[in-house]
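Reply to dn_fold:

You asked what the input looked like. This is it:
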Amino acid sequence: MNKKSKMTKFTARVLAFLMVFSVFGAFGVQSVFAQSISIAGPGTHVHTISVGDVPNGARLAAPTSVVTQATAVSGGNSQLTINIENEHIGRTFTESLSFVWNEGGAYFTDTVLVTIVVAQAPAQNATFHIVSPTQVVDLTPGVTTVVDIVIRNSSNHQARQIELMPRAMPNQNFDVAVHGSTSTFNLNGNTNRTIQLAITPHRDTAVETANIPFELSFRNNIDVLQFVELILPVRVDQSEDDSEDAPRIIMSNFEMPTAAVRAGEPFTITTTLQNTSSVAAHNVQLSTSAFADNFMATSPATVFVGRIPAGASHTVSFSFIPLEDIDTASYSITLNLRYDGLDRELITDAATVFVSVQAGDNAREEGRLQITAISSPTGQFLSGQQGNFAITVTNTGAGEATSIRLQSSPEAGLVPRLASMQTLQLLEPGASHTFNFAFAPTSAATSNFHNILFEVSYLDGRNTARQSFEQSSGMLVYSPERDDDNDDPASTPHIIISDFTVDPGIVMANSEFDIFLTFQNTHANLAVQNIRVTWEVMGTVSSPGGGTQSAPSAVFVPVGASNTFFIDRIGSRSTHNHHLRLFAIPDAPAMAHTIRVTFEYEDQNGGTHTISQNIGVNVRQTSRLELGDPNIPDSWSMGMPIHLNFNASNTGRSTLFNLRVRFEGDGFDTSRADEMFGHVQSGHSGSFWSNITPMEPGPQTVYMIATFEDEMAEQHEIRQSFVVDVMGGFGGDMGFGGGDRFPPDDGFGGGWDDPWGEEDSDGSWFTNPWVIAAAGVVLAGAAVVIIILVKRKNSHNDDNDDDL
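and this is what came back:
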């Protein structure tokens, strides 16, 4: 290396030192190295990297994504253990390794940027063949035979997520199904597995020998789905069989409303009755008893089908109307099937479907409570000092909430100074009420942030089961007596989070935010040093033995740093401030997340200690509703009710509450165009319809307006407009001069108006051709009547003359 390059390197190191020194304070920064590692495929790999002039014994802060272990080695090197999973194949990772050491009373750090490139591994596909049976399998027509089939993975490669997929014969002579468990499984190379197929030749099959094909699907080492076809030879015994097969009817292909049905509006449920046996089924009938309390029948409650031949199907439908006073809920409807089996033995079956119903104007509206404000005490509280809490509960629903109960549950070490459970009989829609609580730490409380759980329960106005939800808060306790924080040099020093602030207070998912933390050494005499601080978000996962347990979660990601940092020293009764910049991932659930902060440190006597503290961060998801354009008919007639169908989709990641869609327009009757759809879960969509009636001819503007609340009880509105051309209709002049509504009242908002009224479009009915024609018909009829009467009178006079 020439002198100029040496000077350039020296200058770069000096500049890096000066830049990073301003960030790390007392830390000195030696240098920054960048290295690249190439890995062929999955598995555990060990690599040695150069870390510059790092002395032996330096402390190493290693990341935890793919680098699972890092060990400092003499000679300025470090040995990395890298674990690559299948999902890492073809990806590139950048890890930052930080080395920290003390030299002459000052702290220094070296940082190594390691780029890990995982190559795309070659595909390793398994191969399969049938080990047994080795002979042709004998089958009997109309009889189901369960065949044990031993398959072998004859390759050296593992097959993952194997799924058995039997196929029916092309000529439909056999029914083939998986027998027993249908779950997927893995199979290592050169190992066997027994599977079972249930094979039923049809009673009238004409074949004697056949090959039964079935498929295995699996994923290879690079997670690509593969398919393998295996063949099982069978022979059908054509000798006479005196046994009689029993009929079997199944209900399938259910068709029902995909969106909520409004009270008073009709809907239909349709199912297919399929005879899957080889003999006919007799006296088949399907009935429902869903009409009792919540629905009215518009079709017979029992449908008698009679005979369904072997292999045939029959479709049955039932029509319902939800009663006007029905509540918004999901209702079950049971369909009961019965038919004759062997020797006319009765066979029964039942299927239950669920229909969502939106309450009408006569139904009782639901109350919905939310905690809209929590006032928590700030600062530190000694034993016996009281901290006051104010919990504001608001009814954001459309109905009353009754029998309200707010129960507080503090952690051990806190005692209530006011009633721990408070009640309220009634909260009207839109009203709020503030509950006051007070707690004080006891002498048994440790220096920590103590959580308090508040549970709200109530009746939502429908007098059904109680609704409930929870929210947590807490207070900071300082207990020097409990912590042995006194003049004894042998006592244990403790680090606590004495204060923290989250900015903004409620974090939006898919955004960055700041946490400002204050750490305090509570000991009166001893300092703490060499402090390693690690944070992680605690989530909830299913435990192997059932239930749930806490586990680290990746809801928050550090920005420009790792989840570990170091603090040189915190003196006795002193504090240290730290700032975290984090990113909330787009899928972060809308809830209060717990961040566990763990301190590993040494006291002045060389003792090592570990302690953890928790803080909370509230996350909010963006509410997003997409409305499709209504299907607008090509022809609009004045006075005729129009059914507008439109789609609504919750494309956000949070639940939408109290979704309501209405139509407005000056030239329309929109009294039946206000639809309440209730709550819509994230990712759900549906097709809805509404009624409007055009009342004025010509171009008219219609507005479609959707309103809903997000999880923070904030109101949102979406407005769309479209212009339609309304024709004159079939009213006062039968549709030829522009008139009023047509046809007569049919219960959907239409009806005849006075065709001779003052609202005739041309102001006079004398010029109406239909009126003139009608008058001509009347005059012609009158003329005919007069002629007949005259003839009769003349005839009568002639008769009198004859008598004379």
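The chain has a mean pLDDT of 75.
Hope that clears it up.
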